[in-house]
Amino acid sequence: MENYDDIINLPHHVSKKHPRLSMEQRAAQFAPFAALTGYEDNIKEIIKITESKMEHRRRIIKSKLNIMKNGLKLIEYFLKPFFYIY
After folding, report:
1. Distances from the Cα of 51 to the Cαs of 48, 56, 57, 64, in angstroms?
2. Is residue 63 in a domain?
3. What's the 3-state SS for the chain?
4. Contact by Cβ (8 Å): 68, 74
5. What is the pTM of this model?
6. Which domain holds residue 62?
7. Domain contains 56
8. 18-31: pLDDT as tens digits
């Protein structure tokens, strides 16, 4: 601590211009920074939109799968006569 020998025993500075802050005021200075106000709401909205899009895509896929199943049934219907042994 050689570098601080000249100031280590000095009394704590008390401003003559600015009054001392209360505990509440000091605590407020160190409160979490609120730069991300509304962030939580934005995330919730994005989740809602994403889930809505996913549900829409699920419905489309389900619909296409049903069409494919019906198409396979139709193909199976027309191919049945070829599988009969005469």
Report:
1. 5, 9, 10, 20
2. yes
3. CHHHCCCCCCCCCCCCCCCCCCHHHHHHHCCCCCCCCCHHHHHHHHHHHHHHHHHHHHHHHHHHHHHHHHHHHHHHHHHHHHHCCC
4. no
5. 0.42
6. 48-86
7. yes
8. 999 999 988 888 77
